[in-house]
Every structure is written in structure tokens, then in C-alpha cells.
């Protein structure tokens, strides 16, 4: 994984350049990460040195998330080993690329009838629209710790943002919403991801959206 900023974004690869000239983007062009990069720089706990294991893992994870959200064709993904890729959350059965694009992994632990967010009824576009509305300045990602390096990368991560937009009819709280968890990425010799496993508290994450607004 290239650690330079020559791809056009400071923290994500595979957005610009000759390799992306035929890429089909969800919104017709690569995303602009200026706001979320600002949020990241102002709120991160650690600035990892360029070329360090932590910085390389952080770039890989950011690039993977960018591709999953904004590239509409799997053949345009550079971060994945498409023949072997699997994905799971909290020990659930692995799912395919097609399935992950049709759901979010923040399913709350309660009956489907009471879900505020039902991933079975969402598409990749609607879920992305929900999050960009809630977090107009972005939902930043940082790597807090890397426990083991490739080929099996075990790391602790933090996602965060400020809920400055509504969520399913609930007014914005302006509060900081955080998601902290562990992940395991298994990669091949070319640092393409073969397997993803995420572990985090889904109920705690969703509760950040449902806090009552203080008057």
C-alpha cells in the first residue's frame, strides 16, 4: 500500500491517476474528503509517521472504506482480492461483496419491528445518504493500535463524528458519536484484503444517534 499522497488524497489511495481513469464513481467523480480529513486531523489521538505499520494499515482501511462506498463496480476495487474476499461482523456468518453493499453493519440488538435503522430495507445509496445527512462534516476513522502486522492484521479502530443532522426524523443533537472496536484484516502478498472481521458493540453505537436533545 502506497503511503504517499500522490494519489490525490492525503489519507486514501486509489482515487485519482491513470489507474482510476475508467472507474465508475457513485456520484460521477471521486469523493471530496476535505471536511472529514479536517475532522480527522483535529480529533485524532495519534499522528502516525508515514511509512509506519500503523500509517499503512490506516491508509489501507480508509482506502477500502472509500472504495466500498463510492465505487459502484467491484472490478474497480484495488484493495480487495475479489476471488477470496469475505466479510463478517461480531462472529456472524461471512457475507459476500454484493450483500455488504446492501446493508450496514450497525444492526441494533432488538426486535426488527423496533429497529430505527433496518439494514434489510436499505441500499448502499440510502445508507450513505443517511450517514452523510447525520454527519455533514464526515465520520472520521483512525487506527488506535496495530497488534499484529500482515498477513493477518489485528488492529483497534475509532470512528467518530458530530451528529449535526437528523437521523430518521430525530433532530440533530450536535453530540460526538464514537464507535470503537477491533478488526482483523487478512491480506495477500499484494496487500489486497482477503478477509475482514469486525468486532464492536452495536447497541452502544446506535444509542449515540438516539440520545434525547437537551433543551
Low-confidence stretches are: 1-7, 104-122
Count of helix runs: 5
The termini sit apart by: 47 Å
> Roughly how much helix do the residues carry, as a percent range?
10-25%
Q: Beta-sheet strand percentage?
A: 15-25%
Helix-strand string: HHEHHEEEEH
Biggest sheet, in brief?
Answer: 5 strands, mixed
With strands numbered from the N-terminus, the spatial order across the biggest sheet is 1-5-4-3-2
What coarse outline follows from CA principal-axis ratios?
A: globular
- Cα-atom Rg, whole angstroms? 17 Å
Number of strands: 5
Structural class: alpha+beta
What is the average per-residue confidence, as pLDDT, rounded to a whole number? Answer: 82
Explain this structure.
The protein is 23% helix and 20% strand. The chain has 215 residues and is of the alpha+beta class. A five-stranded mixed β-sheet has the order 1-5-4-3-2. A hairpin with a 5-residue loop joins strand 4 (176-187) and strand 5 (193-199). The longest helix is centred in the first third of the chain and has 18 residues, at 53-70.
Question: What is the topological layout?
Answer:
Elements: H1 34-43, H2 53-70, E1 86-89, H3 97-100, H4 124-134, E2 140-148, E3 152-162, E4 176-187, E5 193-199, H5 202-207
Key features of this structure:
5 strands; disordered N terminus; alpha+beta; 215 residues; five-stranded mixed sheet
What's this, in brief?
This protein has 5 helices and 5 strands; from the N terminus they run ααβααββββα. It has helices at residues 34-43, 53-70, 97-100, 124-134, 202-207; strands spanning 86-89, 140-148, 152-162, 176-187, 193-199.
Amino acid at each position: 500500500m502506497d503511503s504517499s499522497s500522490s494519489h490525490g488524497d492525503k489519507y486514501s489511495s486509489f482515487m485519482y491517476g491513470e489507474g482510476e481513469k475508467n472507474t465508475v464513481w457513485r456520484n460521477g467523480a471521486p469523493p471530496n474528503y476535505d471536511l472529514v480529513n479536517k475532522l480527522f486531523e483535529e480529533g485524532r489521538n495519534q499522528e502516525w509517521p508515514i511509512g509506519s505499520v500503523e500509517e499503512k494499515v490506516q491508509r489501507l482501511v480508509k482506502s477500502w472504506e472509500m472504495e466500498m462506498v463510492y465505487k459502484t463496480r467491484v472490478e474497480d476495487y484495488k484493495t480487495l482480492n475479489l476471488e477470496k474476499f469475505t466479510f463478517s461482523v461480531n462472529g456472524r456468518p461471512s457475507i459476500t461483496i454484493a450483500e455488504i453493499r446492501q446493508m450496514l453493519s450497525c444492526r441494533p440488538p432488538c426486535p426488527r419491528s423496533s429497529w430505527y435503522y433496518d439494514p434489510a430495507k436499505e441500499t448502499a445509496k440510502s445508507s450513505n445518504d443517511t450517514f452523510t445527512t447525520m454527519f455533514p462534516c464526515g465520520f472520521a476513522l483512525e487506527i488506535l493500535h496495530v497488534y499484529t502486522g500482515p498477513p493477518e492484521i489485528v488492529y483497534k479502530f475509532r470512528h467518530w463524528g458530530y451528529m449535526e443532522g437528523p437521523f430518521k426524523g430525530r433532530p440533530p443533537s450536535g453530540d460526538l458519536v464514537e464507535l470503537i472496536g477491533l478488526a482483523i484484516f487478512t491480506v495477500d502478498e499484494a496487500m489486497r484484503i482477503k478477509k475482514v472481521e469486525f468486532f464492536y458493540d452495536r447497541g452502544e453505537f446506535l444509542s449515540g444517534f438516539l440520545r434525547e436533545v437537551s433543551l
